[in-house]
């Protein structure tokens, strides 16, 4: 991670909402109520901040969350225990500098310490997200399944990785 950047709690809701909205095609839109609901039940809700403010964030839930996402529910129906990355977003200006990797490494360590064996997430296949595909492959995620969701407007790949390696 570049000097001057640090991982901390997700507490600047306006900045997180703005960054999320800028990347809603890859994640999904959130309003403040939905963001607060995610944070309240999050296994981890963290940000990377730098000299100019928010640079990246991650929100992850464990298997016990009450979350209606079809992607989360896919994992919930198949695995008794996991941590699910609902969203990870890095501001375009800061991509390729290790910020998302630092957030994931923090998540892997926390999940392992809490006794979780696996980390789950999904990446859009349609619309495609090749940057996220390459990033998750480099971190050791592998495909566990696929689904067509939202009335056929999205196809996703479900990915898994061991918490400890």
Which helices and strands occur, and which strands form pairs?
Layout: E1 6-9, H1 13-22, H2 32-40, E2 44-50, E3 53-62, H3 70-78, E4 83-90, H4 99-113, E5 118-126, H5 130-138, E6 142-149, E7 154-162
The end-to-end distance, rounded to whole angstroms, is: 21 Å
**SS content category:** alpha+beta
Instruction: Give the DSSP E fraction (strand runs of 2 or more residues).
Output: 25-35%
- As laid out across the biggest beta sheet, the strand order is 1-2-3-4-5-7-6
- Radius of gyration over C-alpha positions, nearest whole angstrom: 15 Å
Task: Find the count of extended strands (DSSP E, 2+ residues).
Answer: 7
Q: Quick one: biggest sheet? A: 7 strands, mixed
What's the average pLDDT? 94
Unreliable sequence segments: none
Number of discrete helical segments: 5
What general form does the structure show? globular
Helix content: 25-40%
Could you state the order of secondary-structure elements as H and E? EHHEEHEHEHEE
Quick overview of this protein structure:
The chain has 165 residues and is α+β, with helices and mostly antiparallel strands. Helices cover 32% and strands 33% of the residues.
Report on the structure:
By secondary structure, the protein is α+β, with helices and mostly antiparallel strands. It contains five helices and seven strands; from the N terminus they run βααββαβαβαββ. The protein has helices at residues 13-22, 32-40, 70-78, 99-113, 130-138; strands at 6-9, 44-50, 53-62, 83-90, 118-126, 142-149, 154-162. The protein has a seven-stranded mixed β-sheet with strand order 1-2-3-4-5-7-6, with helices on both faces. Strand 2 (44-50) and strand 3 (53-62) form a beta hairpin. The longest helix is centred in the middle third of the chain and has 15 residues, at 99-113.
């Amino acid at each position: 991670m570049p000097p001057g950047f640090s991982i901390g709690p997700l507490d600047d809701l306006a900045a997180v909402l703005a960054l999320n909205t800028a990347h809603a095609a890859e994640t999904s839109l959130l309003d403040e109520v939905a963001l607060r609901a995610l944070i309240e039940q999050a296994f981890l809700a963290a940000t990377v901040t730098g000299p100019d403010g928010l640079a990246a964030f991650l929100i992850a839930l464990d298997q016990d969350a009450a979350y209606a996402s079809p992607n989360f529910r896919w994992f919930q129906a198949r695995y008794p225990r996991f941590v699910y990355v609902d969203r990870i977003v890095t501001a375009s200006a800061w991509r390729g500098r290790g910020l998302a990797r630092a957030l994931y490494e923090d998540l892997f360590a926390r999940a392992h310490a809490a006794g979780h064996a696996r980390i789950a997430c999904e990446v859009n296949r349609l619309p495609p997200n090749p940057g996220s595909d390459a990033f998750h492959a480099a971190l050791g995620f592998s495909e566990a399944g696929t689904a067509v969701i939202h009335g056929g407007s999205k196809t996703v790949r479900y990915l898994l990785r061991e918490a400890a390696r």
